[in-house]
Automatic annotation (TrEMBL):
CDD domains: MFS_MMR_MDR_like
Protein name: MFS transporter
Transmembrane segments: 21-39, 59-80, 92-111, 117-138, 150-170, 176-200, 212-231, 243-260, 281-306, 318-336, 348-367, 373-393, 414-435, 485-506
InterPro entries linked to this entry: MFS (IPR011701), MFS_dom (IPR020846), MFS_trans_sf (IPR036259)
PANTHER family according to UniProt: MAJOR FACILITATOR SUPERFAMILY MULTIDRUG TRANSPORTER MFSC (PTHR42718), METHYL VIOLOGEN RESISTANCE PROTEIN SMVA (PTHR42718:SF47)
Annotated Major facilitator superfamily (MFS) profile domain residues: 26-513
Coiled-coil intervals: none
Major place of residence: membrane
Keyword annotations: Antibiotic resistance, Cell membrane, Membrane, Transmembrane, Transmembrane helix, Transport
Bilayer topology term: Multi-pass membrane protein
Biased composition (Basic and acidic residues): 525-556
Region of interest: Disordered: 517-556
Keyword Transport part of the UniProt annotation: yes
Amino acid sequence: MSGTTTAAMRPRHRAAAGAGANRWVVLVVLCVSLLLVALDATVLHVAVPAVTEDLRPGAIELLWIVDVYPLVCASLLILFGTLGDRIGRRRVLLLGYGLFGVASAVAAFAPTAETLILARALLGVGGAMIMPATLSILRQVFPDRRERALAIGIWSAVAAVGAAVGPLLGGFLLEHFWWGAVFLVNIPLMLVSLPVGRILLPESRGERTGPWDVSGALMAAGGLFGVVLGVKRLGGGEAPASPFTVLPLLIGAALLFFFVRRQRRLPHPLVDLRMFRRPAFSTSVGCIVLAMLALVGLELIAAQYLQLVLGLSPLRTGLRLLPLTVAAMAAGLAGARMLRRFGPRRMVCAGFLLTAAAVLTLTAMGGGDNAPLLLSGFVLLGFGLETTLFGAYESMLSEAPADQAGGAAAIGETSYQLGAGIGIALLGSVMNAAYAPGLRSVPGVPRHASRAAGHSIGEAYDVAGRLGGDTGAALRLAARDSFVHGLHVTLLVSAGLLLLGSVIALRLPRIMQCGEPAAPVELPAPREEVPRGEASREEVPREEMPREEVQSRVSA
């Protein structure tokens, strides 16, 4: 009988070995998924002029073409993240693959602006299905926190690559093909990812009881849609008192309030809000919001500075910002080692402080080009921010229970999107408040022209071109100086927010608590046949039997 016991145990050991061998292949599949979503978030930016020339969208339609993808994606992250915990994360991920591929084909051949908006919205739905599923499957496949930290570092480095490569890839495709080619690049990758993901990815779900809260999921989606829409309108320069800005914010905030109250009362909530009672989890979420708040606003303003103040072309601007991405990749790859050595608290605090130092360094930027200063500032900025985000994401995901990995990943990604939107709105408002006063009293410039020039530096250059002569030159110089002044004020505000983040990060654990590695998830592996008459007798693994029963079976 002992021989039968050993034979019955062999497939289980083989499965575990297969898990150890295949989990890095699973990481590659998950990183390809993330790369697609990150690429699609930025690849359209350089194609906007070509889309405008071909489809002739109105101003509002063009705004929706650009913004509907991140808006829909951010709104549905919690819905699909928690749905994956219920019905299976791989299932949701594969459905997201399919929808992403179909929506990409529709977007590539869209005959009208309305069709393109619809296709971009469907891409947002697909992205919301893919993003939390990748992190939650990664949490399941890498139960050992040390290995999971390395996997998250690679995952975050791929995200940085996707965001940076998007505009460069879009520019290359536009030089050789039509604008729809920026969407067609998704299709062959999806055609490969679907069958490979079906074969290699393990299915996992949370051990949750009770019905899925459909009403709560819709309330969360509607609330996030309203809040993100209102924040994006503020970031786009809309008046804060505008009903199209205030109403979405109020309705979204009300829906989120009722969503939280509902989740607290339900015996089987959609999102277990008790996770926020854990200091490491709630602090990590706050750090993600603050880090993104600083990053996105600074990247936007830096791009304007490089193009409109220094006069660099879009391609040279992208190359100047490339060191930021390279430094972020390096921080992601080194993050696991730094986390083990320094612990979450010191790592995230140091990331915030390093980013604040980079921001203060960049306050030395002026009207002239200083390439060494920009290079050092962007390298410090990229490394510091990625260090912060890595430590916060890893702590948040490790603190969440494994059966709620999808919901936790969705909360992290939603925090990421909200931080980005709030950053554009807040830092953009600070920038405008510091920039506009310098253009109110330029000699020889009419009042209506000064008012128009105060909207943005790009509009100021247009007004200066129409005025011409010495007056136009004076307005152009005043706009450049005012922009540099506004940039310095914005950098100081950003540095203050980053220092606040370093203080908040003191609530994180001092050391990386690894504990005993959990049993790995069983991935597809060869199986041995068990004699038919003895299979049922060995259904319970030997290590899970009481010692007395194991001894009696072996002696028999």
